[in-house]
Amino acid sequence: MQIPNLILIAGTGTKSGKTTMVCRIIEQFSNLKITTIKITPHFHETTPGLRTIAEEVGYAIYEETEKGSVKDTSRMLEAGAGKVYFAKVYDDKLWFVFEKIMELIPAGTPIICESPALRNFTEPGIFIIMNSDTPNKLKNINHLQELPHLPFRLEELSELLSIPVDFKDGKWSKR
């Protein structure tokens, strides 16, 4: 399924810069009130600031309400996101949960989502892969590297005046 108003971000490891990239794009397009989604297969303890939207066996969906903490979702809200959703979900329910979140977002809203597994189900307007050299934290996303994407490294972000993307007529595109 094609979703042209979606930027999907994956990373080759933890601390690769996925959330930093999301925040940079939010700040660059502050007038758009971008909606962000962070999806994880890890069922960590729920933290303060997360308002429960739905919880069932195999998934939970929350809206982030707290700015100023070190959580990735809080950083997105602090950067200026209009709404921030967080989902803990097993892979077999990923598409179902993503569709439930999409029902909460007005059509045409610019969206950025951190979720490598979602790329198996959808063709986003832009797919970004953040590359990491941290050897003990690498993730195997080789099958995703073969798909069209924009590659970045965390170290590059501080050198870029702007991220080379645009949002026009309801679609994300590369500049």
Topology diagram in text:
Elements: E1 2-11, H1 18-28, E2 35-40, E3 50-56, E4 59-64, H2 72-79, E5 83-89, H3 94-102, E6 111-114, E7 123-131, H4 142-145, E8 150-153, H5 154-157, E9 165-168, E10 171-174
Parallel strand pairs: 1-6, 1-7, 2-5, 2-6, 7-8
Antiparallel strand pairs: 3-4, 4-5, 9-10
Helix pairs in contact: 1-2
What does this structure look like?
The protein has one domain (2-174). Strand 7, helix 4 (142-145) and strand 8 (150-153) form a beta-alpha-beta unit. It is globular, with a radius of gyration of 15 Å. It is 21% helix and 35% strand. It has helices at 18-28, 72-79, 94-102, 142-145, 154-157; strands spanning 2-11, 35-40, 50-56, 59-64, 83-89, 111-114, 123-131, 150-153, 165-168, 171-174. The protein has 175 residues and is of the alpha/beta class. It contains five helices and ten strands. The strands form two sheets. The chain has an eight-stranded mixed sheet, sandwiched between helices. Strands 9-10 form a two-stranded antiparallel sheet. The model has no long low-confidence stretch (mean pLDDT 91).
